[in-house]
Amino acid sequence: MLKFVVLLSAAACVYAASAPYTTKYDNINLDEILANDRLVSSYIKCLLDEGTCTPDGAELKSVLPDALKTSCTSCSEKQRSGSKRIFKFLIEKKPEEWAKLEQKYDPEGTYKTKYQAELKALNVNAPVEEAAAPVVAPVDTSAKSETSAKVEAEAKPVETKSESENKTPSH
Prior knowledge:
Blueprint: H1 2-11, H2 30-34, H3 37-47, H4 55-69, H5 77-93, H6 95-105, H7 110-114, H8 116-121, H9 146-154, H10 161-166
Helix pairs in contact: 1-4, 1-5, 5-6
């Protein structure tokens, strides 16, 4: 888990302008980490406040907003490269999670616009969202449910005073 946190830290371009981010995780096997769905899911849940965070996950979560804002100015070259791979992976393989991360960390779309050219250069193949036709269930008017029959039986029109006065009594 520690490895993935650091990778996401790099992906987020970690600590801002104050000090370079640690390079102790620069030589981890990124493919191995991204192949571990449980690990990836755990860190995503941490970042989204949907699960508990390891200390490394909490660190990532605390630096992510600032790292995005500063365009990864304190990242090493390996961290920048790793972050691009992680972004591409999340966009292509975990689009629902990516959308949630975008909503949480970029609700105004500021960073999406800011990093659009970089993502395009990565040849990111985002899943195409098909225009879905509205789902309309056929209505069977021949049979009434027990509930609708009961509601109809209990629903009686309310007569106003003028309507009742206009009726002539039938003898």
